[in-house]
Amino acid sequence: MFDFFSGTEDVVCPHCLRKISFGDIRFYCETGDERRHEVSPTLADRFKKRLPVCRRNFCQNNGLTVSAAECRHCGEPLPPQILFHDRYLSVCAVGVAGAGKSSYLTTLVHELKYSGLPWVLQAMDVETTELAQSGEYNVYEARHCPAGTKSGEAPRPQLWTILDNSEKTDKIPTCALTIYDGAGEDCEHIGYTAADKQIARYLSGTKMLLIIFDPLLLPGVRSEILPEVLNASMAIERQTSAPANMVSMINSLANYIRGSCNIAPGKRIDRNAAIVITKIDALRDIAGGFGSSSTIMKESPHAKMRGFVQSDSEMVDLEIRDFLTRQGETAFLDTIDANFSRVRVFGVSSFGRPPDQNKRLAKVHPHRVLDPLMWMLASEKIIPTV
């Protein structure tokens, strides 16, 4: 399944985004009493690309592999195994408050685990494990809509390993996947607060931007949709000027990326920008929405085909662009296309149907949530385009 170029990609710290190697990481042996001491890798460790082993006399972990590490540049903890992946991918989700980023990322991770693809998804650290378990329990078992990301706090990256189990060999290809998620209120004013500066760093180093757009913020949709569906589907009250905030946010993040990466003002940014329209389940029955015969409402073919189906994605892109044009949102589309050289529009439903009046969910059936990730994997030549 994977087409890897083993050992050719730079490893970066997921926190400060500096390039790192053995010399940029402090490895630690941690004992049961929570004391720890640094363990230096040997020349053999560096040559064979393996984790160092504790050799301290009288340490209860003598002879055991280290279990903790941190970046020498920023001091943030790192999974020791982060150095040993074949490929490194990262995505950063941005969007105005209430757009559904947290819901989307929760179901994206869950569906990736159970997609039917020969992939094994493993969390690299405790934080990622706890976040995923909490999100999955709230959505899939308790049937609650996830709470939004807290504003003013620098987001912690989710650190995942994808193992390709399609071929039974001794060496399984691995891919490190880092996911960044910032609060909507912070994304709307990118670069103006301490938390935004952290998000802005993530933006400058990510392989793909997930730009989340809530169609229920559009005045035309709000006038057509049933009030009970609108109230149940919106996480918070928003002004109808939110689409204008999206245009401002796109311009702000594009300006930051250009400045930090030394890109000329008139040059498009050379990275994937996935425009993800959420909550399409609420658009099924409104005038000018998406009927059952629309490609976007049909089951996604990418996982079943074990590759990225170009024709399906192009049709979905066209359908949503036509929808946004009918809604008068050409400024949003023009802003995206003017700033990024590789743009693809996607439509997803994190839950499959709107919540009820108490914000409770029916049985969750996510729709097309993997499509943007499959596009990125195909762009990176990790899966085929079919």
What can you tell me about this protein's structure?
It is a single chain. The chain is α/β, with parallel strands linked by helices and 386 residues long. The chain folds into 2 domains: 22-83, no CATH class; 85-379, Rossmann fold (3-Layer(aba) Sandwich). The protein is 32% helix and 17% strand. The protein contains 12 helices and 11 strands. The strands form 2 sheets. The chain has a 7-stranded mixed sheet with strand order 6-7-8-5-9-10-11, with helices on both faces. Strands 2-1-3-4 form a 4-stranded antiparallel sheet, with no helix packed on it. Strand 1 and strand 2 form a beta hairpin. Helix 5 (194-205) crosses helix 8 (242-261). It starts with 24 loop residues before the first strand and ends in a 7-residue tail after the last helix. Residues 1-8 have low confidence and may be disordered.
Quick structural gist:
By secondary structure, the chain is α/β, with parallel strands linked by helices. The chain contains 12 helices and 11 strands.
Give the SSE order as H and E letters: EEHEEEHEHEEHHEHHHEHHHEH
Average pLDDT: 84
What CATH architecture of the largest domain do you see? Answer: 3-Layer(aba) Sandwich
* Order of neighbouring strands in the sheet with most strands: 6-7-8-5-9-10-11
Shape: globular
Structural class: alpha/beta
Q: What is the CATH level 1 assignment of the largest domain? A: Alpha Beta
Whole-number radius of gyration? Answer: 22 Å
Instruction: Please tally the helical runs, counting DSSP H or I stretches of 4 or more residues.
Output: 12
Uncertain stretches of 5 or more adjacent residues: 1-8
- Helix proportion: 25-40%
- In CATH terms, the superfamily of the largest domain is P-loop containing nucleotide triphosphate hydrolases
The biggest sheet amounts to: 7 strands, mixed
User: How many discrete structural domains?
Assistant: 2
User: End-to-end distance, in Å?
Assistant: 13 Å
CATH topology of the largest domain: Rossmann fold
Strand content: 15-25%
Number of strands: 11
